[in-house]
From TrEMBL:
The keyword Glycoprotein does not apply. Keywords: Endonuclease, Hydrolase, Nuclease, Nucleotidyltransferase, RNA-directed DNA polymerase, Transferase. Residues 2-72 form the Reverse transcriptase RNase H-like domain. Residues 137-228 form the RNase H type-1 domain. This is Unnamed protein product. Pfam families: RT_RNaseH (PF17917), RVT_3 (PF13456). It comes from Phytophthora fragariaefolia. The keyword Nuclease applies. GO terms for molecular function: nucleic acid binding; RNA-directed DNA polymerase activity; RNA-DNA hybrid ribonuclease activity. SUPFAM superfamilies: DNA/RNA polymerases, Ribonuclease H-like. It comes from the Eukaryota.
Amino acid sequence: MRFTGRVLNDAELRYHAAEKEVIAVLRVLQVFQTLLEGCRLEVYTRHSVFKWILQSKTADGRCVPWGVILSHWDITVRKVQRDEDGLTAIMGAGITPRDHLDEVTESLIPAKGHVRKPPLVSVEMLDDTYQGIVLSFDGAAKTSTRRGSCGCILWQLPGWEVLEARGFVLDDVSVNDPEYNGLLRGVHMALDRQVENLVVMGDSRIVVQQVHGLINCHPPNLQMHLAKCEVQKGKFRK
């Protein structure tokens, strides 16, 4: 058994947990390249992002170089739920002959986890067979003029059919105001269509985390938006 790791830089600290898992695997492949070269690798992960990066033809941003590196390896991805005792069980399993290592490890990986799933959801985490409505939103503001805009789209999955897409020009707004406006207006669009189950996605980590109660919301203008979001959340089944 071998161990490795490194300190995340400032930007990586803000990555989603799924992205940090990818960074960890890339670190292993880099440090132990001579040991792993030519071997079939099995990666157990709690998220679908890793498999998506390996197979996606529409990846962009930092996912592109990650996918290029991973494509050179024979990797099988197996998704599991997080389990606090999983690593402990593996560490306490004793020394196992190399011929039976995969068999023993397979039996130690939990089929079901005991820890609540992370509340943040991204499109990559949705199963390929998911059927339902997805709301995407975004917004931007120019602080010098206090003007901005926001947009929201309702998608029907599978198939990514656009049900409705709207954009709005905003006055007297500051940072994060447009994102909240995009979220709220998109939620109203969904309610007008009598949608009961809604998946919401947006690239504003601050807004998403505040809505989930993961970080505090101090600015009065954002507190007002957050209160409206709490009211609207109660109108959906989930």
